[in-house]
Amino acid sequence: MTFIFAHTGHWITSLIYAAPVVLLVALLVADHMRNRRREKAKVSSAAGPVEAQAEPTRDQKPHNPA
User: Fold this and answer.
1) Distance CA 52, CA 36 (A)
2) Cβ count near 29 (within 10 Å)
3) I need a labelling partner for 48 at 20 to 30 A (CA). Which of 20, 34, 39, 65 fits?
């Protein structure tokens, strides 16, 4: 059985059309992995020390006319 290989020029044009798709898939996979890592870090930090509470807003501060 003989395999016939196309010319390099035919492969290059196919790769040019496929490159944006491959790049998009790679970016989506990288973003998914980054989000999973952040979620894992968020869950592990939730069991850690309590973070300092933010300064209350003006509406939340008690009214002390003095």
Assistant:
1) 25
2) 10
3) 34
